[in-house]
Every structure is written in C-alpha cells, then in structure tokens.
Amino acid sequence: MALLTPLLAFLYHLPQVYKWLLKPYYVASFFMAVAFVAIRKTPGVCDHLETQREDGNSCDFDWREVEILMFLSAIVMMKNRRAITVEQHVGNIILFSKVANVILFFRLDVRLGLLYLTLCIVFLMTCKPPLYMGPEYIKYFSDKTIDDELQRDGRVTWIVEFFANWSPECQSFASVYFGKVDIGRYGEGGKELMRRPQVDKKGRAVSWSFTEENIIREFNLNELYQKSKKLSRSREKPTPAQGEEPESKKDK
C-alpha cells in the first residue's frame, strides 16, 4: 500500500506532470542530458568521431563509455532513493547526466568538452527550474494569520514549513507540508524544540528523509490524531439544557 498510493497519485496528476516537463527549462535540459548519446549514435556525425573499439565502429560505445554510463545509472538510482517529489527525481537525472556528459565529451575531444562545459555554465547562470505549479493543498500564513489559525480551533494540528523563498530545497517540499510561512518576509520569534534533519557537532546535517512515514513518527502525528478524536467526542456529547435535570435524576 505504501508503494501503491504514490503511484496512483502520480498517475492521477500525470497530465499536469507532462505540462510541467514541457517547460523550456526541462526541454533544454533533456537535450543537454542526452547530447553525447545523440552525437555518438547519429549517422553522419558519429562517423567522424574517434573510438577505442577494436572493430573501429565509431557509432557505438566503447567499453569505457559503457562503464561511465553504468556508473551514472547507479548514482542516479542511489540518489533517487531519498528523493520525495517528481522535481527531485528529474533534477537528479538531469544533474548527473550533465556531469557524465562533461566527462564523456572531454574524453572524446577536449574541444567538445570545453564547449559542452561552457554551455552548462551559461545554462546554469541564465536559467532557473520552474517552481512547483502542480496541485497543492497548502495554506500560506503570515506572522499574524498563523497565530489566528492556531487559536481558532485547538483540535487542529498544523504541520508548517518555515521556508526561504530563494531556496530550491524548500520549494521541493511543497507536497509534504500543509502550511507554509515565508521567513524571508515574516520573521518568527518562536523557540526551537526539535530540528529535522539534526546537525552534528561539526555543523553538518545528519541524513534524514522527509518521507510521510518519518514525519508521522517524528512529530507523533498518530498520538496527536488520537487526542484530537477524544477531544472531538467530548465536545460532541450533549449537555443538559438549562433548568433541566439529567435523566438519571428524573428516574429517581
């Protein structure tokens, strides 16, 4: 069930995912990610490339190129094990594909390597990935509205992300939290009780994944849910009307 739920959610939002992936940033990133494979496999172009294959076929990968591509696949699989959103999965594939392309182009021809590296740097400096524009069930608070919301109903527990709008990492958690506060605009004077991920003595973040299971466990959401149910039941119990005795006293 843990695997089926996200799969069904992904299929449900698939049309919106396609629309998001067709943004110019991702279209350009896709062509840059497959640039080496395209050049190596395109007839008329690959014929003029050098190769270390024994049969001299310059339109096929040599053993070193296969090793690099296999290593790329292993790295992407390891990184995507901790990815949460579609953005993170796609971002990992694009990033490490470009790194592999740089290595492959430099190995093939230094001039091609320099050209591809320059394109990557220019692309990185001039283009930014589009923000998450898919379906989200998130309420955005300010420093005043969050206090009003918390006091409005004590039975409701909010999971709120205090994020920085300039941080891509914060943007990628859009589908994890129910409420968000931009600390760049609204400063908060609260006291920190717990930090996830934790920071070790050297100031480095300890590895921790923002998965549904981890959030439920670390924030004791099951316990909060049970308390909320008990509180709701106690409030729903009817109270005797003014001037009317309870049924137990009437029977006596």
Q: In angstroms, what is the radius of gyration?
A: 27 Å
In N-to-C order, the SSE pattern is: HHHHHHHEHEHEHHH
C-alpha end-to-end distance: 55 Å
Strand proportion, as a percent range, falls in under 5%
List the quaternary state of the chains: single chain
Q: Low-confidence parts, pLDDT < 50 over ≥5 residues? A: 248-252
Query: Total number of β-strand segments?
Result: 3
Query: Main beta sheet, described?
Result: 3 strands, parallel
Query: On the 0-100 scale, what is the average pLDDT?
Result: 77
Pairing-aware structural class of the strands and helices?
A: mainly alpha
The number of helical elements comes to 12
Q: Order of strands across the widest beta sheet? A: 1-3-2
- What percentage of residues falls in helices of 4 or more residues? 40-55%
Looking at the structure, what is the overall shape?
elongated
Protein name: Thioredoxin-related transmembrane protein 2b
GO molecular function: disulfide oxidoreductase activity
Keywords: Membrane, Transmembrane, Transmembrane helix
GO biological process, one term: brain development
Structural write-up:
Residues 229-252 are annotated as: Disordered. GO terms for molecular function: disulfide oxidoreductase activity. InterPro entries: Thioredoxin-like_sf, TMX2. The chain crosses the membrane at residues 20-39, 114-134. Helices cover 52% and strands 4% of the residues. The protein is built from twelve helices and three strands. Helix 5 (63-80) runs antiparallel to helix 6 (86-108) and helix 6 (86-108) packs antiparallel against helix 7 (110-126). Mean pLDDT is 77; it is low at 248-252.
